[in-house]
Amino acid sequence: MxxxxxxxxxxxxxxRSVFSKLSALRLIVLLTTTGCQSxxxxxxxxxxAEAVAEAPTQLTLVEGWxxxxxxxxxxxxxxxxxxxxxxxxxxxxxxxxxxxxxTQEGLVSTYAQEGGPELYRVDPTGLSLxxxxxxxxxxxxxxxxxxxxxxHNAKGSRVTMHVxxxxxxxxxxxxxxxxxxxxxxxxSNPEQPEAQEMVVETTLCEGVGEVQKRIKLPxxxxxxxxxxxxxEQV
Length: 234
Known about the structure:
Blueprint: H1 2-54, H2 70-74, E1 80-88, E2 91-102, E3 107-112, E4 118-123, E5 126-131, E6 134-140, E7 148-152, E8 158-165, E9 169-172, E10 175-178, E11 181-188, E12 198-205, E13 209-216, E14 224-233
Antiparallel strand pairs: 1-2, 1-14, 2-3, 3-4, 4-5, 5-6, 7-8, 8-11, 9-10, 11-12, 12-13, 13-14
């Protein structure tokens, strides 16, 4: 009898032991498939968002150009020099520029052998060019071809800035360039509506900046033309 009672009493204990093991196993599976995932999901989402936010973005300054900074796009680096041919009718000469200073205000100055210094101003919105010693907003970033806008200079003239893509290949003694910007600044004074307009056409090429300039003045029968002869970085 004793043996039978012990055998009978061991059966529930064994059953309870097996049941406990199965319950624990189910609980572990439940936690790993539901509870753990729900606890980790909120932490993983911000990490993915932070990774996207921290990914570096490169601003394309000019359509079709592979550069992403003003220095690399327009060559506005201190120490870089350029030599231009200056032509007015049959009169031909040379003019050399060297970038000599860059300030915290975004001003970059060049020294010209004749005509005095040239100035550029760079800010997040665009590039200002020097016209008659006065800086005027000329190119807006990012550059979009076919876009025009107007500003006024200190003399009260309205200056219309227009950007186009130069056609074909521009051949110069300093090399051949294509995919450049053809920038036109057209001056008009409302007080002299019958006067002929002054027009300044500047060709800016990737990695170099100004490669060619053509200035049409009402007082001169021939335009003043500048063509890049040589470029170097000191």
